[in-house]
Each structure stands twice: as structure tokens, then as C-alpha cells.
Automatic annotation (TrEMBL):
Pfam families: Glyco_transf_5 (PF08323), Glycos_transf_1 (PF00534). Gene3D superfamilies: Glycogen Phosphorylase B. The lineage of its organism: Eukaryota, Viridiplantae, Chlorophyta, core chlorophytes, Ulvophyceae. This is Starch synthase, chloroplastic/amyloplastic. Transmembrane segments: none annotated. InterPro entries: Glyco_trans_1, GS/SS, Starch_synth_cat_dom. It catalyses: [(1->4)-alpha-D-glucosyl](n) + ADP-alpha-D-glucose = [(1->4)-alpha-D-glucosyl](n+1) + ADP + H(+).
Length: 500
């Protein structure tokens, strides 16, 4: 790579400071990977709490009558910029609390977009500002007004003429949808209304008359004004152009397919490394993975009061308990799975009815259902299990299958999104593949795929070990993803910028 870029990530969350899902993981991992490759990288994220590390820059800017202050933390080669405003710190979660979604989220993330556009101009870091020659990475609907403001407010004034914007879609289902009258609070010229106007999404309707009409849709505006669009896997990039995965935006996205790319996420190769993982009873590598997995399986069996036998196939599910992750499909297949002489261990939380389904597994001597979020247990279970189930109805990228392969655990996954890009069906004739996939997403398909996996595990152990080894050596690093993002940056700079 010869050219370096100044990249500004705009995101509503970034691990380890704030995280609710995959977006936080990406925003916490991709920027350091790009910085390690020589780029100047800034991450702009709300200051939801008084984090240890970020220091007050004392720099304030006025944004449409709202004063925000910037805090700076330099870590892993990245300039982490936290936007401070009273609307961000609150006792609940990032987006909602026990009473539901916050009513001012539109304002909070509008403010984030405006603050992110000012940060490269206002903040002297290591003696200089980032300036105007920027590649903005706007993540999901929360940051999708970045290209809109760039086109409506900055470029007409001669600012950011050399800047480019890339919209990253992590989950198209969440679009930032609000009533049309809220457009007036966004500070945009009136002739920009049609940029945001869109039909109210059918999947969000609650039955009221107003929901049959028009809406202000932040993500729609970002898709139409960004210089390029990326999403978190090639498979998901294809799906969001169809009614099956487009959530009402398939034709809009298909119209921009010429600037759309899918790049598979990486994983943290240090946190998820069986050779150094401090959570494991026995650390192991590819040279001794059979012994290592057996010892971890025995340790987890003791911990969960399961029959101690390293030869019993252990099947795992780790994930959010909701419609997307297909936890209901798993529970439908569970009686058959439990009858196959295996141990089934599930970890997750979410929908109360599905949580009760996990508790129901405890009634079986070979079943365990842990309701909750437990990072150490997720590592121990990934190391101990032979097979990981991922029956997600849709999965933009998915990380658990990548963690599993790194630990020599074979994924069985629905053939969708990033899962079909990363889980290659085992071919016994060529001895190729990294797991099993199934489609459609229903209990019968999952049962058939698990049956194939168990047959191979028991009757063809050498083939099963070959699948495990291929998964363990697969390059799932963020450096690989970063190289592909560099290509997108290059393409964005070659093209002329979007002009509204």
C-alpha cells in the first residue's frame, strides 16, 4: 500500500467503551487495524459515561444552538474523540431503558453527525488538525446524516471539497425512522426534504393510520447521498438488494449497486486465541487441539454438572434470543438433538419466552440453558464444544462462527448473509469446507445439517478433524478486512463527490 488516508469513523458505539452488538465490535477493531497500516484514524462517538482515559480538550463548538465538548483518548494508534452533551449520559442503556427507546434519539445522533463533521476542522491533535481531505466512515442510521450535511451545508460553502463519505450498513432493519414534521429540526434546507422522505417501513408499523404514510428516514438519506456504500459481507450486500433482505429498501440499494461492496468483518485475534485465552481450563493450538478441546470439554462438563465424557459430542448455541438469531428454530429442533446422544449447552438472553425455552432444556440430563450474558463462559463453551449452531434467519456478517472456527469448533449455520460467505459446506469427495449450512431456516433443515455433522464426527473422525483444522487456520484478521477497505477508500477518492 502506497497511499495513506485520514479516516474519520462516526459511530454510535465503539468497544470497549460502548457496545450493544456487532457495530461496537467493528468500530473498536477496524480503526486500530487501519492505523496499524499507516493511516491517520479518528473515531467520533458519544460520551455516554465518564470513561477512564479520555481527557477534556476544553474545545467546544456550537451546533444549532447546542454546545458540545470534545474529549480525546489516544489508544492503539487511534484518536478516540468523545462528544460530550447532556443528552448522552443517562442511567439506562445507550439507545433505550426499561421504559423503551429514548424519544430524543433522533436529536442525539443528529448532534453526533454535526459534531463529527466539525472535529477534523476544530481539534488540533499532535500539533495539527485532520483538515478537509478526509474519508468519513458513517456507520448505520445513527451516522447517516454525515453525507447529507456534507452535501447540504459544507460543500456548498467550499468546505470538504476533497472529502468523501462511505456509509457502512451493519443491519439494514434499523433505519432511523421518524415523522415527517421532524425534518424541521434537522437544520437542513427545505429543498432537501425529499432526500429523507420515504415510505414508512412495513416491518415497523403498529397499525396506526399515520404509519401507512410517509416518514423521515435517516438511513435512506445516507444511502442516496454517500459516495460509496459498504456492508459487512458480500452475501449480505446481495441480500439487501432483494425483498428477502432489503426491508423495503431493496430497489433503492439496487440502484446504487455500482458503488456497493461487501467486506467480511474480522475478529480480535488476540482476545479470541485458544493459545493465550485466560478463560480456558487448557490453552491449545492447532498441534494439540484434540487434547486441548477434550480437557476444556471435561472442565465444562464438571462446571455444568454434565456427564464427564470427552467422547460425547457437545453442541453449543451462543447468541441473542430473538427472531433474527433463530433461537425458536433451535428450540423446535432441540428434542431431536437431545435424543442423539449429545450434550446441548445454550447461552443467551433476550425474549422472555425464549429465555424460558432455555430453562426448559435444564429438564434434560444432557441439556443446559444459561440465561444471561457471560463473556468467560462464552469463551469456555466455544473451546469445549465440537459443534456450534447458528440458525439465524438473517445475519449481516456474524462473529460467533468466526470465533468457533478459530477454536476448532465446527459451525452449522443457516445459509444467509455473512454465514454463507464464511461457512463453506463440507465436501467429503474433495475433503474441503469449514462446516455445514442449511436452507430454508426451519427446524427440519437444522436437524438434517446436525445429523450430517454428527455422522461425520462419529463415522469419519479424520474428516471432522480436517474441518476443524481448516477453520483454525482461516485468516479472520482485521488486517485482511482493512486491506479491502483501503481499496474502497481509493475508489471513493477517484470518483467525483456527491453533489445534491
Amino acid at each position: 500500500m502506497s497511499k495513506t488516508f485520514s479516516v474519520v469513523f462516526v459511530t454510535s458505539e465503539a468497544a470497549p467503551f460502548s457496545k450493544t452488538g456487532g457495530l461496537g465490535d467493528v468500530a473498536g477493531s477496524l480503526p486500530p487495524a487501519l492505523a496499524a497500516r499507516g493511516h491517520r484514524v479518528m473515531v467520533v462517538v458519544p460520551r455516554y459515561a465518564e470513561y477512564e482515559g479520555p481527557k477534556d480538550t476544553t474545545i467546544e463548538v456550537d451546533l444549532m444552538g447546542n454546545t458540545v465538548r470534545y474529549y480525546l483518548h489516544q489508544w492503539k494508534g487511534v484518536d478516540w474523540v468523545f462528544v460530550d452533551h447532556p443528552s448522552y449520559m443517562r442511567p439506562g442503556g445507550i439507545y433505550s431503558d426499561a421504559y423503551g427507546t429514548y424519544g430524543d434519539n433522533q436529536f442525539r445522533y443528529m448532534l453526533l453527525c454535526l459534531a463529527a463533521l466539525e472535529a477534523p476542522l476544530q481539534l488540533p491533535i499532535n500539533g495539527s488538525t485532520y483538515g478537509e481531505d478526509i474519508v468519513f466512515m458513517a456507520n448505520d442510521w445513527h451516522a447517516s446524516l454525515v453525507p447529507v450535511y456534507l452535501g447540504a451545508k459544507y460543500r456548498p460553502g467550499g468546505v470538504y471539497q476533497d472529502a468523501r463519505t462511505i456509509l457502512a450498513i451493519h443491519n439494514l432493519r434499523h433505519q432511523g425512522v421518524y415523522p415527517p414534521y421532524t425534518f424541521g429540526g434537522l437544520g437542513l434546507p427545505g429543498n432537501w426534504y425529499q432526500c429523507l422522505e420515504f415510505q414508512y417501513p412495513p416491518h415497523q408499523r403498529q397499525g396506526s393510520y399515520e404509519e401507512e404514510g410517509r416518514s423521515v428516514n435517516h438511513l435512506k438519506a445516507g444511502i442516496t447521498t454517500a459516495d460509496r456504500v459498504v456492508t459487512v459481507s458480500p452475501g449480505y450486500a446481495d441480500e439487501i438488494q432483494t425483498p428477502l433482505g432489503g426491508w423495503g429498501m431493496e430497489f433503492l440499494i439496487a440502484d446504487r449497486s455500482y458503488v456497493l461492496n461487501g467486506i467480511v468483518n474480522g475478529i480480535d485475534m488476540h482476545e479470541w486465541n485458544p493459545e493465550t485465552d485466560q478463560h480456558l481450563a487448557k490453552r491449545y493450538g492447532i498441534s494439540n487441539f484434540s487434547q486441548g478441546k477434550n480437557e476444556n470439554k471435561l472442565a465444562l462438563q464438571r462446571e455444568l454438572a454434565l456427564a464427564e465424557d470427552p467422547n460425547v459430542p457437545m453442541i453449543a448455541f451462543i447468541g441473542r434470543l430473538d427472531y433474527q438469531k433463530g433461537a425458536d428454530v433451535l428450540l423446535q429442533a432441540a428434542p431431536w438433538i437431545m435424543s442423539q446422544g449429545v450434550q446441548l449447552v445454550c447461552l443467551g438472553m433476550g425474549d422472555p419466552a425464549l429465555e424460558n425455552g432455555l430453562r426448559w432444556l435444564e429438564g434434560f440430563p444432557n441439556g443446559r440453558g444459561w440465561v444471561g450474558f457471560n463473556v468467560p463462559l462464552s469463551h469456555r463453551l466455544t473451546a469445549a464444544a465440537d459443534i456450534l449452531l447458528m440458525p439465524s434467519r438473517f445475519e449481516p456478517c456474524g462473529l460467533n462462527q468466526l470465533y468457533a472456527m478459530r477454536y476448532g469448533t465446527v459451525p452449522v449455520a443457516h445459509y444467509t448473509g455473512g454465514l454463507k460467505d464464511t461457512v463453506v459446506n463440507f465436501n467429503p469427495w474433495t475433503d474441503g469446507g469449514t462446516g455445514w449450512t442449511f436452507s430454508p431456516c426451519e427446524a427440519g433443515g437444522l436437524i438434517q445439517a446436525v445429523d450430517n455433522a454428527l455422522h461425520t464426527y462419529r463415522e469419519h473422525p479424520d474428516s471432522f478433524k480436517s474441518i476443524q483444522k481448516r477453520g483454525m487456520v482461516r485468516d479472520s484478521s482485521w488486517d485482511k478486512a482493512a486491506q479491502q477497505y483501503e481499496q474502497v477508500f481509493t475508489w471513493a477518492k477517484i470518483d467525483k463527490p456527491y453533489v445534491g
